[in-house]
Amino acid sequence: MATKWYLRSSAAAAGPTGELSTDTDSFSTVPTSKNTPLDMTVAKGAAQTSVAGVYNSGATPLYSMMRMFVSPALAAQTLTGGAANYTFAVAGTESNTNMNLYPRYFMYVWRSGSGNVKTIVAPVSEATELPTVETGRVQTATGAAGDFSIEENDRIVLEWWWDIQNTKTTNYTATGYFEGTTDPVDATETSDAASYVSIPQTLTYPAGAGIPIRIAMFHYMNH
Q1: What does R_g of the chain's alpha carbons equal in angstroms?
Q2: In terms of residue numbers, what domain contains 177?
Q3: Which three-class secondary structure state does DSSP give residue 139?
Q4: 156 and 44 Cβ atoms separated by less than 8 Å
Q5: Domain count across the chain
Q6: Does the N-terminal peptide bond of residue 72 adopt cis geometry, omega within 30 degrees of 0?
Q7: Beta strands of the chain (E only): which ranges?
């Protein structure tokens, strides 16, 4: 059974402080706050939010990270290598068809004090350009070969990048959407995107990981 995490706008409790992809970011300060890790959670958000950046290329292809998202802490377990159907479902827009904008992804296991200890999905771009209206894009990928021993409190990080395939010295805007209530559907317009990733195995969490949430809910309901 797969593990599905939604991309959220809340700051992650732990995670990297910058991109770790093998790609070079041609726009290292666009958009602002891109190096603040955000959450991935099993729960959807309540309303869509967006992140936009303005890009002026002049060369092609150019890559730039939009945001990084961090999973909950994981229990010690084995991540199966070479698994198919890692799924990235997002929504986005380009401001002009001349921008030639494609979502791009990088996923790895992050360990505090060590950084990237296992690349799961090497940088991969969508095959279909985003349009100028908010539209879902769903892509699958096969994970890197080799089983990997996840240690307790390791986390999985998704870097959502842009692949900008134009050579024009013109400002274009790329916008990504997440935090909403509706799962993106490929090539389908949306207005409340709950962008997500799906990992093709059931991942587990440390024992008692959900206790603080349950205690907080009990306290709230009894006051």
Answers
A1: 18
A2: 3-221
A3: strand
A4: no
A5: 1
A6: no
A7: 3-11, 38-41, 49-55, 62-70, 77-79, 86-94, 101-111, 115-125, 135-141, 148-150, 155-164, 172-178, 196-199
SS3 98: helix
Helices and strands, counts by H and E, the chain: 1, 13
179-188 pLDDT, tens digit per residue, is: 999 999 999 9
pLDDT digits (tens, 9 = 90+) for 125-162: 999 999 999 999 999 999 999 999 999 999 999 999 99
Helices of type H across the chain: 211-221
Determine how β-strand 62-70 pairs with β-strand 38-41.
parallel
Q: What is the pLDDT of residue 45?
A: 98
Quote the distance between the C-alpha of residue 159 and its chain's center. Answer: 5
Q: Positive or negative, the Cα torsion across 74, 75, 76, 82? A: negative
3-class SS at 220? helix
